[in-house]
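S1.2 Input.
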Amino acid sequence: MKIPAIAAVLLACACSLGQAAAPAERRTDPLRSDPLDSPRWADMRKEMFPAGARVVFDERVRVTAPLTAENAMNVPVSVDAGALGEVQEILVFADFNPIVRIVRFEPAGAYPGLGFRIKLQQSTPVRAAARTADGSWHVGGAWVNTAGGGCTLPSTGSSSPEWQKRLGEVSSRVWERKEGGERVRLRIIHPIDTGLAAGIPAFFLQDLLLADSTGRPLMRIEGFEPIAENPVFTVDIPAGRTAAGYRVSGRDNNGNAISAVIEK
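S1.3 Output.
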């Protein structure tokens, strides 16, 4: 009588293990599982990508950011999708920001990566989704912890009359990279307000184009409200696309023009 009892117990255990294993298998589904374990991922997937698009998590899309950001209004972030090969566009977003989209860029002739600074409202995954020529979106990201409040505070520049005199002013630096090619860094004077601070409307950099001296596009950047004040962008130019000089043009959401010539 003892042997059937033991067999029954073993059978019950086997059944319970099988039942417990089923959810684990579902969590490995690439459309459901999130390496950053964010409860907002399902919403992000619906909001950021076209219906039916192929979306995969991919370690080749690297997002570099501080684990803990001391200043929620000025968080340095860099994105590198060069390991994917040809990239059509890259969208950067933060799951828990009140304004989720941060920046979108198209590496028309530049390396598929970008350095910039952002505002964060609270601790959140910061993600980059790179679209390749086959229409697939490759997603990488990093958690950034912060005390928060970066999106709902007014910019420091909005309270100073100086920004009106220098609005759209571009400063730059160009230097050679040890890997070959050049690195171009731009800084644009602009207060950048999200529109979430009481009494201060949204005011942000909307479009920016970096081109070579002949006008050939290298990097197109579309900005959104969470870009940091006086935005800084770092762009790498491959060896075959460097030029004698570069041009910058663009506008903000109020139609103010940005234009500069970068001489080396």
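S1.4 Remarks. The domain at 51-262 is CATH 2.60.40.2470 (Immunoglobulin-like).
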